[in-house]
Specification:
There is one protein chain. The protein has 372 residues and is of the alpha/beta class. It folds into 2 domains: 65 residues, Orthogonal Bundle (DNA polymerase, domain 1), CATH 1.10.150; 296 residues, Aldolase class I (TIM Barrel, Alpha-Beta Barrel). It is 34% helix and 19% strand. The strands form 3 sheets. Strands 3-4-5-6-9-10-11-12-13-14 form a 10-stranded mixed sheet. A two-stranded parallel sheet has the order 1-2. A two-stranded antiparallel sheet has the order 7-8. β12, α10 and β13 form a beta-alpha-beta unit. The chain is globular and about 70 Å long. The relative contact order is 0.13. The structure holds S-adenosyl-L-homocysteine (SAH). The site of S-adenosyl-L-homocysteine has 17 residues, from β10 and β12.
Length: 372
């Protein structure tokens, strides 16, 4: 990479639609965009010479103006349980993390959407680090691009990454347009071709963005609920003060009604914090709260991090909490904690970056209901 590359257009920044527009501007036929998207995301190439079905002239003109550039791999750690965690450096020196979790014939990639997070949930280590900026499309899809290249070097071999969850660092709904473009590539048959049931966006509950998502994309939706009432959720997920539980659950129901989602359910994520939200009464309150929403509850044992005020609930407590929900008719699973030995578990992703102290500004934008 030389200095002039900085001014080049990164082709990983384009969804198929946007690449088609770009090619049209260059007086190229739309099907060329499809060919290039396949080279980029199915064949995983990082140079134009490899694109053998393009004319030499087109390859040369693309090479003159464009680059194919994912974030740079700083470390790739593998856990004893097969989990991988990548530390990736972005052009501005910020670092983010991406995690791969294999389980049986499923392989899930946990993708970050922002450098840090502005939402300040009290039990999440990403939040403790502050917020720096939104990721570009290339930085979001680049995580999948890198993971696939590493885990499945032969692009024609059978799929290793079968699922993607937007559950890494950041609040995907607050980086809406870039997340949509990246997720379109995840779903696009010309790119990663993942099934819409296997691509999940997880949100703390940005209500207007949930409605907007339904108009744009059909993916699985997960809600980070973590509390059965507003008084408690206000403390754990400060965004609740802006969008209280009732409004968030109504938005989830609208999402199910609006996307073509026969038999689909919302996933409700609930981190169990000892003595905070894990009592029998909380379980009953949660069952009452969710009785009309088609959902499955995913209980997440709290993963501790340095200086946290919270503790993990005991195994007995988690079992009891789950039993109550199951007895009350709620579909409930317990998320296995994976990759703990490499700090790759939920809420442990921290990356390395400067808090630009934009959290307040960002919050002000949310308050005004502004989504980018
Ligand atoms: N901002 C989005 C995406 C992050 S997803 C959201 O809130 O949904 C990461 C998931 O892990 C969320 O459900 C989050 O609440 C949960 N989580 C955060 N910190 C955790 C921790 N320390 N232990 C277990 N789960 C945690």
């Amino acid at each position: 990479m030389n200095a002039s590359d900085n001014n080049k257009i990164n082709l990983l920044d384009f969804s198929l639609d946007k690449l088609t527009d770009f090619f049209q501007q260059r007086s190229e036929k739309p099907f060329r965009a499809k060919q290039v998207i396949k080279w980029l995301h199915q064949m995983n190439v990082d140079n134009f010479d490899a694109m053998s079905n393009l004319s030499k002239a087109l390859r040369e003109s693309l090479a003159a103006d464009c680059i194919i550039k994912a974030p740079e791999i700083i470390t790739d750690q593998a856990s004893q349980d097969g989990t991988h965690k990548w530390l990736l450096r972005l052009d501005d020196g910020n670092c983010i993390e991406t995690v791969f979790i294999p389980e049986g014939d499923r392989g899930t990639l946990c993708v970050s959407s922002q450098v840090g997070c502005a939402l300040d949930c009290t039990f999440c280590s990403t939040a403790r680090q502050g917020f720096s900026r939104n990721l570009t499309v290339a930085e979001i899809i680049g995580q999948l691009w890198i993971a696939k290249r590493t885990l499945q070097p032969d692009p024609k071999a059978s799929r290793v990454i079968t699922n993607v969850v937007m559950m890494g660092m950041g609040e995907p709904m607050l980086n809406f347009e870039n997340v949509i473009d990246a997720m379109q590539l995840m779903l696009d048959d010309n790119a990663y071709g993942l099934s819409k049931r296997r691509v999940t966006l997880s949100t703390s509950g940005v209500v207007p963005a949930i409605d907007k998502l339904a108009e744009r994309l059909n993916v699985a939706l997960a809600l980070s609920l973590h509390a059965p009432n507003d008084a408690l959720r206000d403390k754990l997920v400060p965004l609740n003060k802006k969008y209280p539980i009732k409004e968030v659950l109504a938005a989830c129901q609208r999402y199910l009604d609006n996307v073509d989602s026969v038999r689909e359910k919302i996933t409700i994520e609930y981190v169990l914090l000892a003595g905070v939200n894990d009592s029998d009464a909380h379980a009953h309150e949660l069952a009452d709260l969710l009785k009309n929403l088609p959902c499955k509850i995913n209980l997440i044992p709290f993963n501790p991090f340095p200086k946290t005020q919270y503790q993990t609930s005991s195994n007995n407590r988690i079992h009891r909490f789950k039993d109550i929900l199951v007895q009350r008719g709620c579909v409930t699973t317990r998320r296995k904690t994976r990759g703990e030995d490499i700090d790759a578990a939920c809420g442990q992703l921290a990356g390395k970056f400067k808090d630009r102290s934009r959290r307040k500004i960002h919050f002000a934008r949310i308050e005004q209901g502004e989504q980018q």
